[in-house]
Give the backbone structure.
Amino acid sequence: MLRDWSVFVYIFPKSDECRFFVVLWREFCHASFNGSDRIHSAISSGLGDRSNGFRAAFFFASPIHAGNTQMTVYFSERLATHHPKVFVPAFAALTSNGVEVKLLDTHRNIWMRDYMPVHTGDHFTKFAYKTFGHGEYDCLRVPRNCWLDFNPALSRIVLDGGNVVECDSCVLMTRAIFQHNPKQKPADLVRALEVMFEKPIVLLPMEPGDWLGHADGIAHHIGGNRVLINDYSGMETKVHAQYQTKIETILARAGLEPLLFPFAYHRCPEMSEKKFRVKYPEADDMNPAVGYYINMLIAGPVVLLPAFGFEEDAEALSVAKILLKGKTVIPIDCFDLAMLGGLLHCCSWEHDEPTTIHALR
């Protein structure tokens, strides 16, 4: 039985500096798997010296065979080429668990969650993308119409996908939507969004000190009425304790069960603006997401969990395995990515679709 396989190649110096210089992808072959009804994805790697002073590692993965409906996760090509320490293990974890991975050319903007279409009811809606800093930083610009293949409805409402946390009974957003849409009356804006999503909108206050106001850095729906929220106890400030209480109260009133999840922003290193610009030239505003374990990606049977090299990593992994029992939880080193202002949920976009197996494109 023929199956489509894809090959992923990364090349890096012999010095093992973990600085990946090339990311290539192409369809490798059509392969037979002894008539098995389901191909269990296999990851194999081979390292070898090259006369040009580089080593190459090859990851082969096969998704579930055609005919099923499966989860597809999209990343930007720039994430693959410029952040392989994140992309390579994410690609391996997803494809080895039957989740298809595709790439899109999105110029320099790796934060796909914010500008890709959003699931609203039984279709997609493409909201206007004018996130704070959009016109100031080239790294936040995106090619026009990179989302056309998904045939979304178009809306003039300005809404980042990162400010949408959809639950079974409602949709969580922060009050940043009012700042993004100052010409619309708040009540009219909420009413319009509720018509689009076909669910009530539950508004959350913006996190103290966070100007971006994305709900996916505050809460994560994990099924039923259960919603993970940040445990701000490590911040040791009255304002964060009060904020946590507000979030818990709002969610409880909406019929949701808030569950505390590890949070380690207090571990974020202090750094001057000058030093930050030198070390992270691709960043936009200095607004690190270090310690936001809640910004994980849940895709089908797989959970990609941010890790930062902190002692809290082990706690986050343990809690995730308990609360997301039955799923494969994979920690991924995201420290440098987080310093740019986002994490795994921010840089990905996923949906269920009828399977058409393709090589990465």
Remarks:
- The chain has a mean pLDDT of 79.
- Residues 13 and 135 are 36 Å apart (CA to CA).
